[in-house]
Amino acid sequence: MSKKIAVIVGSLRKGSFSRQIANNLVGLFPSDYEPEFVEIGNLPLYNEDIDTPENVPAEYTEFRNKLKDVSGVLFVTPEYNRSVPGALKNAIDVGSRPYGANMWDGKPAAIVSVSPGAISGFGSNHHLRQSLVFLNMPTLQQPEAYIGNVTNILDENGKVSDKTIGFLQSIIDAYVDLLNRY
Ligand code: FNR
After folding, report:
1. Looking at ligand 1, which atom is closest to the CA of residue 83?
2. Which domains does the chain have, with CATH numbers?
3. Is the pTM of this model over 0.95?
4. What is the ipTM of this complex?
5. pLDDT tens per residue, range 109-143
6. Ligand 1 neighbours (beta carbon < 6 A)
7. Which of 39, 96, 101, 146 is the most exposed, having the fewest neighbouring CB atoms within 10 Å of its CB?
């Protein structure tokens, strides 16, 4: 049976460079893996008052059910103000609750940070890593995946060069090794 992997992109904008990189990454999984984009832009801001059995938003339930089904999570995200975009942090929070039903628990993760700048989303990558420690997600350590100067590596069709594909493949190969250990 194929293993489903949730692919979560931290940017909501249509032309997102992070999503373009994610589109390149999903084609690099072995055939027995099924990467699937899980969208986060429709999730209401997390609020414990509405997260009750009577009031829970349908979007929270749908998102949590999608996470329940997957063997791992690949995060591809930009950096906002040296941290994780609010939409992604919100999705992390929604998936982690209600208390005792952390949907992220035990699922191996990989983080790819993306930026048009030279610092490559380092702050976002590591702030996200901090949350994943608390959520108990074994997270790919090496190779680290910081994609900087992203506008230089994407062509007009959103594809990267063969050289960059080699690097992206090394990330996916290491992530698959991690997934196979769980
Ligand atoms: C940014 N950007 C940005 N870039 C960066 O490298 N470090 C940062 O701290 C920030 N901060 C930041 C805050 C906010 C609110 C925005 C909107 C943008 C620039 C960002 O990297 C750029 O807009 C990317 O194109 C966003 O990623 P996507 O949407 O292309 O995936």
Report:
1. 9
2. 3-180 (3.40.50.360)
3. yes
4. 0.99
5. 999 999 999 999 999 999 999 999 999 999 999 99
6. 11, 13, 16-18, 78-82, 114-117, 119, 121
7. 101
